[in-house]
Amino acid sequence: MKRFFDDGRNEGNMVGTGYDQNTILQAVHTKWAGNTVHFVNETDSTNNWVRTLAAEGAPHGTLAVTESQTAGKGRLGRNWKTEEGSAVTMTLLLRPDFAPEYAPMLTLVMGLSVGQAVEQMGIAASIKWPNDVVVSRKKICGILTEMALEGSAVRYVAIGVGINVNTEAFGEEIQDKATSLYLETGRTYDRNRIIGLVMERFEKNYEKFVQTCSMKPLLEAYNALLANREQPVRVLDARAPFEGTAHGINEKGELLVEKENGEMVCVLAGEVSVRGLYSYV
Questions:
Q1: How far, in Å, CA of 189 to CA of 244, rounded?
Q2: C-alpha distances in angstroms, 102 versus 61, 153, 154, 200, 214?
Q3: CB neighbours (10 Å) of residue 279?
Q4: What is the full per-residue pLDDT of the chain (281 aa) written as tens digits?
Q5: Which end is more exposed in the chain, N or C (fewer Cβ atoms within 10 Å of the end residue's Cβ)?
Q6: Measured distance CA(219)–CA(134) in Å, rounded
Q7: Which three-class secondary structure state does DSSP give residue 235?
Q8: What SS3 state is found at 136?
């Protein structure tokens, strides 16, 4: 049964936007992903919020959505803010049975799901490994996955997703790296539908992933959308940065990069970033 929760902080929610618990639930057609929705007008970080929900016993597949995020977190400790009406800002709570070592690959599973959802809307999208979805070689989506342990078992995983939907402008410092669906097409989009499509795709992809706890069932689909594939890249490893050509990911979700000397390196996401040799992608 679908459930929604108004957490008592929605005074001032944008009137007439049609973006709240009810409209999100009406757009979600899944067995479990996003079938329980919590919604607030403003929060610091949906990942922080999900940490609280998890401690309160929220079930697998719970989705936390906000209209405005004031202190969102990005990969490598970067801050990320969202303005009202401009983005989809959400975190999905998972309670998987698999070992902690497999959880980082869920970032890739979500990236694939967002990319597929955007393509389903008729917009060409690709994935910049490991956690960005791009349109026209600019970022429209970032993903941050966090995990909590109980002993040696996974207590929960929180996958935070921020999608630039109806943003009309970005600051000069990121104009060359960021875009939105609106800027790419000149159209505004129903954020409820976007959430519904992402949840549908994620549920299907997740159920394939847990069969092997690897990217093997999703490998072809992921590499087909990989923006870095067969492209020159720079691996920004603080210890030993290097350049090479990316050839896709393997079953562990590692990026395969061939150095100029022919050595093949399996790059593991974490404290490493990958950039195009001549641009962001």
A1: 38
A2: 18, 11, 10, 22, 7
A3: 11
A4: 444 444 544 433 333 358 999 999 999 999 999 999 999 999 999 999 999 999 999 999 999 999 998 875 554 445 555 677 889 999 999 999 999 999 999 999 999 999 999 999 999 999 999 989 999 999 999 999 999 999 999 999 999 999 999 999 998 889 899 999 999 999 999 999 999 999 999 999 999 999 999 999 999 999 999 998 999 999 988 788 899 999 999 999 999 999 999 999 999 876 567 887 667 77
A5: N
A6: 19
A7: strand
A8: coil
| 3-6 vs 36-43, strand pairing mode | parallel
pTM: 0.90
CA 52, CA 239: separation in Å to the nearest integer?
36
- Burial track 94-125 (b if 16+ CB lie within 10 A, e otherwise): bebeeeeebbbbbbbbbbbbbbbbbbeeebeb
Q: Which residue has the tokens 């999900």?
A: 50
